[in-house]
Amino acid sequence: MKPRNADLLMMLVTMSWGSSYLFMKNGLDSVSPFNLVALRFGLAFVLCAAIWLKRLRSTDKITLMYSFILGFLLFAVSASVIFGLGSTSTSNAGFLASLTVIFVPALSAIVLKQKPEAKLIVGACSALIGIGLLTISGPMSVKAGDLLCILAAMLYAAHILVTGAAAKTADTLNLGILQLGFAGGFGLSFSFMFEHPRLPESTGGWVSILMLSVVCSAIGYIVQSIAQKYTTPAHTGLVFSMEPVFAAIFAYLFANELLPLRGYVGAALILLGVLMAEMKRKSAAPGGIGYGKGEGVS
Description:
This is DMT family transporter. This protein is mostly helical and about 300 residues long.
């Protein structure tokens, strides 16, 4: 698979996650936070496991180990965002959670000693400014919810980096499926400890849970695991910065929410940042953040 095609798949994944805010909001009207995490990832795992059961039986230890780590990170990211929304505004949460676009190249440079290309840094900065214009609607103050959303961004940056490392040695399809099972398992365990787990009682609640499970989780995370083998963590983080843009589009289409002028300017800056990263890439040494045309990182 060519890197550009992998990034295109990542864009489709990002689009599905942009729709998740609407479904998550509706889902929380029916079940509690940890319960929502358990249902979202648990049902996604059951669906995928039923389809690829024979292949899952041949899972090796490396894939299982990476799946456990990614499942925990996935659970922690989802829980942090959900609880963060309890004490901060939606606009602040959207901006802070999207800081992944900055944390990925930063962590790559610190942990993996990989220096990003200059255009990638400029593109990330453009996307960051765009996210701020798109999502921040008022004065920003630091609250517990803000810190939780920043934590979610850092955890998801770590998830992207671990996925990139795992994709080089693990079975990417099994990796994508099993991490859903572990995330759902963590959600169910915490729900039993701190909540009273139950199933949605309304049709709207079930629709939200199923959309989160099938579209946003089963399809989204499996495609990410497979496609990320052919692109880089830094490019993945930058493409994911389009999530608030898609969230705004879905909010307009299905909730009649309009953006102010600065919001559209922000969306344009995010798109510009992604397009800058998609310009012809320079070759780099194996394992580096830059890579040549048609050349993966594995």
